[in-house]
Amino acid sequence: MIDTKVVAISGGAKNIGKGIARKFLNEGWAVAILDLDTESLEKLNFEPERTLKVVGDVVDEYDVAEFFVKVKEKFGRLDAIVNNAAIGGFKDFLSLSVTEWKRVIDVNLTGCFLMVRFGAILMLESPGRGAVVNISSTRALMSEPGNEAYSASKAGILGLTHALANSLGPRVRVNAVCPGWILHEGEEVSETEHKQHLVGRVGKIEDIANIVYFLADENQSGFITGQCFVVDGGMTKKMIYI
C-alpha cells in the first residue's frame, strides 16, 4: 500500500474530468481514471507512477469491478471517488426513444451507483475516512426544452448523494457539485455570454476541479456531507424575463 492518497475518477480523460485529475496530482495524490475514450486516455501524459489509466464503460458492472481490482493491485488503497462520466442526449422530447432515455440514465446515474458500489469496498478497507464527489448539473435544478433525460439523470444524482451519505457515513462523506456553464478545453464564447453571468464570466474547468478537491480533502471539508454545491457564476439566481 502506498502512503499517497488515491482518487478514482470516471470520465477523467478530458475536459472537466482531466482537470480534476490534474488538480489531485498537483496536490500530491495518485489518480486512477476509468474512461471509454481510448484515444484521450492514451494522450494523457500524467506521471505514470501515480497514474492508472483503464478503458471501460461505467454502465458495465464488470468493467467497473475490474477497474477497482486494478486500483487495489497498483495502489493498495482508495481515498476518494469522483463520478464525472456523463453524456448529454439532448433531444426533442416527442422524438426521444426509450433506448436513448435509458442510455443517458445508465451512464449518468447508474454509472455513479456502480462506481460507489464497487469502490466503497476498497475505500472502507483503507485507512482514514473516504469521500465521494458526484458531478451533477444545474440542469438538475432548472431546465431547457429537450433535456428531459439529462435533467432527470442529474437530479437523480442529488438523491443518490444524500442517500449514500446516510448509508456510508461516518467513514465516507458523499457530496455533489452542480456545475453551470463550464468552458471545455479550447472552447471560446462571446463577451456577451460572459457578461450574462453575475460574476462576469463563464466558468473554467479549474472552478470545478478546485471545489471537487475541497470536498475530497478531509482537512478542509470533514464536516460536510450529503450536500449539493452549485458552481454557476450565479446564473441559477438570476431572474430573466423576455
Task: Name its key features.
242 residues, alpha/beta, Rossmann fold, seven-stranded parallel sheet, globular
Structure summarized in a few sentences:
By secondary structure, this protein is of the alpha/beta class. It has helices at 15-26, 38-43, 61-75, 98-125, 148-168, 191-195, 205-216, 218-221, and strands at residues 6-10, 30-35, 51-55, 80-83, 130-135, 172-179, 228-231.
**Largest sheet descriptor:** 7 strands, parallel
Poorly predicted residue ranges: none
CATH superfamily label: NAD(P)-binding Rossmann-like Domain
For the termini, the CA-CA separation is 58 Å
* Structure classification: alpha/beta
Instruction: Assign the CATH topology.
Output: Rossmann fold
Number of strands: 7
Strand content: 15-25%
Element order, helices and strands? EHEHEHEHEHEHHHE
> How many domain regions?
1
Q: List the strand order in the largest sheet.
A: 3-2-1-4-5-6-7
What level of helicity do the residues show?
A: 40-55%
Shape: globular
Radius of gyration equals: 17 Å
What would you say the CATH architecture is? Answer: 3-Layer(aba) Sandwich
Mean pLDDT metric: 97
Give the CATH class.
Answer: Alpha Beta
- Helices, by number, come to 8
